[in-house]
């Protein structure tokens, strides 16, 4: 007798019982808490070639099943993050800082947000020498070790966040300071315990570390810090494995700059992943949570690379950048723009969004992040969302101070954003009535809020 796979799956989902005598639900099947022996026997017991409709149904079922299992790990990570958040909540409640203020007052919640930032984020001013960078890394990151084939320590450097052009910063890129980049990378590898060759240069990351470099669409090749011989000598030999990945920018982000820029704007940027061994041997294969494909591919897209949400007046911005505010290119009064001290503008005119960093942290199985260009803090926001340790290198002491305050303010906004992983209904209840909440930000009731925070497996029924 011919049996349709969809009917069997529906029967298993609706009528079978697990070993405890309770009805088997779709969640039980997706999370492997019960073994679907009936479906297996129906497939193995067929004695003739099934029709195409059955084969298509089984393939469709298998694909959805595999997708569910692949996302189960992310659900577990989210559950751990929720438990971690509750632990932080209890820790803050019992400490003196928030208790100095009325419970659930704005001051109390601000102290709570500061405690979360303090626990997960460590911001440091940039060291100007290799020895200084090595000392920073040794003191702050040596406790984090990657395990090849399981997880990694992700080290990032974005060329567009290392400086800013003094004139036309929204369309003009500052020159790439290769010497500063080389000093930073070799200091990081030295502090992390990297390979020291015969010339005393640290040219190879430690096993379990992944260095992610963004070229900003310039075609720059980041090879200088990873060569055994100095300069561009023909005897120079690369000591690392490098994987090149193209990142496709969305049409919206290209058009936003094309309206004021002259000439063509490249829609493709390149990221380089530098490792001591092949990348496939360092991190396990995982699917992109926010994009198509896996980390074995060589393209990611489409991504909005736009100005960040952090704004400041130009006077404070000069203090944030210090000497990294560079006058580059031909400057004349006719084409230069006026930047008054009290004029508000983005602190960084271009950056990857937080969801892109969330995607990269998950797909690279990062369990700690070292960001050599902390920039506007989008990577720090992603690390806070995923509850990952984050060490960020800032341009100046003022950058450290102002970015820390920005992250605290962002956390308070995340607490009241429905659907965000950090949404906290106690925070919303403390500052809004039910009527105002329903009218202004659509605050759900307790049961709906709980469902939003839990991962819901996709419907795998045919």
Notable characteristics:
462 residues; alpha/beta; Rossmann fold; 2 domains; eight-stranded mixed beta sheet; 17 helices; globular; disordered N terminus; disordered C terminus
Share of helix among residues? 40-55%
What is the CATH C-level name of the largest domain?
A: Alpha Beta
**Multimeric state:** single chain
Strand content: 5-15%
Count the E strands.
14
The general outline is globular
Mean pLDDT: 75
If strands are numbered along the chain, what order do they take across the biggest sheet? 1-14-13-2-6-8-7-9
Estimated structural class? alpha/beta
Question: How many domains comprise the coordinates?
Answer: 2
CATH architecture of the largest domain: 3-Layer(aba) Sandwich
Give the termini distance in whole angstroms. Answer: 20 Å
* Poorly predicted tracts of residues: 1-24, 27-35, 89-96, 434-462
Describe the largest sheet: 8 strands, mixed
CATH topology of the largest domain: Rossmann fold
Commentary on this structure:
The chain is α/β, with parallel strands linked by helices. The protein folds into 2 domains: 67 residues, no CATH class; 281 residues, Rossmann fold. Helix content is 42%, strand content 14%. The protein has an 8-stranded mixed sheet with strand order 1-14-13-2-6-8-7-9, sandwiched between helices. A hairpin with a 5-residue loop joins strand 4 and strand 5. Helix 4 crosses helix 6, helix 11 crosses helix 14 and helix 12 packs across helix 13. The protein starts with a helix and ends in a 9-residue tail after the last helix. The N terminus and C terminus are likely disordered.
């Amino acid at each position: 007798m011919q049996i349709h796979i969809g009917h069997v799956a529906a029967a298993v989902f609706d009528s079978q019982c697990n070993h405890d005598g309770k009805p088997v639900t779709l969640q039980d099947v997706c999370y492997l808490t019960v073994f679907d022996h009936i479906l297996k026997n129906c497939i193995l017991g067929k004695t003739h070639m099934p029709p195409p409709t059955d084969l298509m149904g089984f393939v469709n079922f298998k694909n959805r099943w595999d997708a569910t299992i692949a996302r189960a790990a992310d659900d577990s990570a989210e559950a751990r993050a929720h438990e971690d958040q509750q632990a932080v909540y209890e820790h803050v409640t019992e400490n003196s800082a928030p208790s100095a203020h009325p419970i659930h007052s704005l001051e109390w919640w601000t102290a709570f947000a500061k405690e979360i930032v303090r626990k997960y984020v460590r911001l440091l001013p940039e060291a100007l020498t290799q020895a200084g960078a090595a000392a920073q890394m040794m003191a702050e990151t040596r406790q984090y070790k990657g395990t090849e084939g399981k997880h990694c320590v992700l080290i990032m450097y974005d060329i567009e966040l290392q400086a800013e052009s003094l004139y036309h910063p929204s369309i003009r890129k500052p020159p790439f300071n290769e010497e500063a980049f080389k000093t930073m990378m070799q200091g990081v590898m030295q502090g992390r315990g990297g390979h020291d060759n015969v010339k005393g240069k640290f040219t190879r990351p430690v096993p379990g570390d992944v260095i992610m470099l963004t070229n900003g669409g310039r075609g720059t090749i980041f090879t200088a810090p990873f060569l055994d011989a100095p300069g561009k000598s023909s005897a120079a030999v690369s000591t690392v494995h490098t994987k090149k990945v193209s990142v496709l920018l969305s049409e919206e982000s290209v058009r936003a700059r094309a309206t004021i820029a002259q000439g063509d704007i490249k829609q493709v940027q390149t990221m380089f992943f530098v490792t001591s061994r092949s990348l496939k041997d360092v991190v396990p294969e995982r699917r992109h949570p926010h994009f198509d494909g896996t980390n074995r591919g060589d393209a990611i897209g489409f991504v909005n690379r736009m100005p960040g949400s952090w704004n400041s007046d130009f006077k404070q911005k000069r203090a944030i950048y210090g000497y990294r505010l560079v006058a580059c290119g031909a400057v004349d009064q006719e084409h230069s723009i006026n930047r008054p001290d009290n004029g508000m503008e983005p602190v960084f005119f271009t950056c990857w969004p937080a969801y892109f960093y969330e995607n990269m942290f998950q797909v690279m199985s990062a369990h700690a992040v070292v960001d050599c260009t902390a920039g506007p803090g989008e990577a720090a926001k992603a690390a806070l969302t995923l509850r990952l340790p984050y060490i960020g290198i800032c341009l100046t002491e003022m950058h450290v101070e102002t970015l820390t305050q920005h992250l605290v303010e962002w956390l308070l906004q995340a607490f009241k954003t429905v659907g965000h992983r950090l949404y906290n209904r106690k925070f919303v209840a403390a500052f809004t009535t039910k009527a105002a909440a329903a009218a202004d930000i659509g605050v759900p009731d307790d049961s709906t809020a709980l469902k939003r925070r839990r991962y819901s497996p996709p419907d795998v029924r045919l």
